[in-house]
């Protein structure tokens, strides 16, 4: 009897010991597994950021399959297929890319062509934003900053929601973010010798920003001038880079585009703000507008049209009353 009791307690102690050992090993294993996962994320933050954004943007893309085509995107597709006159009202390079991708996709169906445009541009946009997140980590930003930035790009609907749309603003915004990440990286290292490769990348991304939206050049060129004034080493290289940017851009816009039959966009696009100011003045203080001012305005815009259609948030309604041929006035 005594022997049986002893064996029983030995069994209990052995069972408890084995259980505790199992729990300990399991916890260590989970900690190690968790540590491996965290280490992988830390070492491959670019890939992790890309996958997170792709996952978070996917519901928008799936819900709107094959993708939505707003007015501007529809207009560009019509220009690419010769339905509308080919102009630089919307950046012609993006218009040509839309046309090429759409033609390839149409071998399967029209919808597949739209989906191909959305898919290709979405991947490019995510690559740009993933570079932003990865650069912040590389620069030594706190976890709150670079993880918060990833969360921002992943969950704010302005990014994923617009990714499913065929519109130039998406790619322009992503390329602009990438341009300034490279730009800031060069500024951080301004006292060191910058690799030629990085300068070439800055040039290429800068060109893409200029060509993805007509006002992109007004951001890139002044930024490059500021960079030249800021850097301490190899300033002449940045001067050459700026000259190359200007020559290439002017060559594409001034020579290549006309050769391809691209007409210049209307001057009204650069006058949105003064047009809006004029419309607001007419709307709020019509009694102060003199006959001479009314005639001058009416020669360029439809006076009655802008008074009725003025919208403080959108300039299109006012711009659309612009009288073509009045550029000299």
From TrEMBL:
Claim: Transmembrane is one of the keywords in the record: yes
Transmembrane portions of the chain: 6-25, 45-67, 112-133, 145-165, 171-188, 200-231
Keywords from the UniProt entry: Membrane, Transmembrane, Transmembrane helix
Protein's name in the database: Glycosyltransferase RgtA/B/C/D-like domain-containing protein
Organism: Anaerobutyricum hallii
